[in-house]
Every structure is written in C-alpha cells, then in structure tokens.
Amino acid sequence: MIAIIGATGTIGNALVERLIKLDVPARALSRKPEKLEAKIKELGGSKVEAVMADASDPSSLYGAFNGADQLFLAMGNSPNQVEIETSIIHTAAQAGIKHIVKISSPAFEERSPVAVAGWHWKIEQVLAESGLTYTVLRPYAFMQNLLRLIPTVTAQSMFFGSMGSSPCNFIDCRDIADVAAEVLTDREKAGQIYTLTGSETFSYPQIADKLSMLLDRNIQYINLEPEVQRSNLIEHAQMPPWLADHVVEIQTMATVVPERPTDTVKRLLGRDPRTLDAFLQEHIELFR
Length: 288
Hints:
This is NAD(P)-dependent oxidoreductase. InterPro entries: Ergot_Alk_Oxidoreductase, NAD(P)-bd_dom_sf, NmrA-like. 46% of the residues lie in helices and 17% in strands. It is of the alpha/beta class and 288 residues long. The protein has two domains: 2-139, Rossmann fold (3-Layer(aba) Sandwich), CATH 3.40.50.720; 141-170 and 198-258 and 274-288, UDP-galactose 4-epimerase, domain 1 (Alpha-Beta Complex).
C-alpha cells in the first residue's frame, strides 16, 4: 500500500491517476478528501482510496499510514517545511513505513543560494538518518509553472523574469509522477537520488518565440533586474515575499550555473520525456 501526501498537488494528482491506471493499491491523504474521492470514483480507481489526514498532525497521519509500507511525500514549499516534513518522516517510521519517495530540489547544497533548496537539503539529511529506504526525486522547473505567465501574456502580450537568455531545464509534472510511480512499484529502482529534467533546455526569449508562433502575435519577454522582479512578483502577482525570493533566487542562479538536461526520465521510463512544445500546444488556448 502506498500512502500519498500531496495528492491534491500537481505531481501528486498525476501520481494518483497513474497508480489507478496501474491498478496499484494506494491511499491519498487530504484534509478535504471529497474532491479526491470524486476523482478516484470517476477514474474507476477501485484500489485507491482518499482518507482525511492533516500533514501537520502526527496523530492523524499515524492512523492514515496504518497498513501502508511506502510513502510519497510532496509538500508545497513553505517556511515551515523542514519542521513539517521532519515530523512526517518520524511519524512514518513509527507507523511502519519502509520506503519514502520525496520530491526535493536539484540545488541541494547546505549553503545553497536558493533558500528553499537549503530546506530540502535539511530534510534529505533527516531521511538519511531515519533508517528507512528512501528515494529522492530532484526535478528542475515545472512546465506547469509556465501557466503563471498567462495573466500578462493575455493582457499585455508579454511576460517578465530575471534570467536573461540563460538556458533553463523544464519538466512536465506528469513525467515526475510517472517516475515516482516507477520507483514505488519497482523496488530495484528505489533507494537512489534522481535528477529529473526534460530532454532540452529553453531560455525565456525562446519560450516567447514559441508562444508568438502558436498565438500568431508577438509575445515579448521583458528581462528585469532581480530586485525589480521581486517587487513585481509581490505587488502584481501577490506572491508572499518568501516565494518571490525563491523565484528570483532560482532565476538568478540559472544565469550563473549552466543548466543541462539529463537522460534520467528516459532511462527510468523507457521513453522520452514530454516536450515543452507539446505542453504549450496543449495549453495554448489559456494564453489567448
């Protein structure tokens, strides 16, 4: 039995769908499981159930973990992430979980210039000291995060960033979920650290060109200084300051640390990862 924390998130939601298709027993945890229950029923997931549990409440998690031997852990980033995920790992160990698959960060050094990556680094150390088998997935930028560009593309035919023309790794969250399902169902692939990317890198100017072609109008990428980008995200995108810092830190790091694709998805899944072209084509109506 696989317990899933983060089942309502982009990766976790796709994982639920994948496990239903594979007919694998799973338990999706949520504080409000009603929507998950409806989705599971719609997809015919007879071996997948949704249960009520709060990731910040060890007692509710302990009960939800009963009978499960594996845990998929994908928490949304937050300033109290280290505290919450550390508690989850300890509770999982006490409840009899044997293997944890954690979504982490590719920039994992303790003193990483990306603060959120530092949080993930600390959590990975907790996993290493837990005595459990653990698999760490370190995906680069989610293609789904490009949907955040929709408001300014639709209203102004432009989007903003602070990456210049630096190449950036992107990966579809559905590929991350497929990899997670693979390591959860094939024990020979468990117990490793995997860095996940798509098969190509793309700069923001290149993405602007792709959108221009698909939309048949000129879409501009406007490069901003990091502090200007930070203020823009807080004032106009209503991001909390810590999240705006995270976005700017990632984009700034991409300008100084070259990003290159890996072949990990293809090696694990036996197929190429989904392409950015296919992703943009699939969602292009949202940008009109």
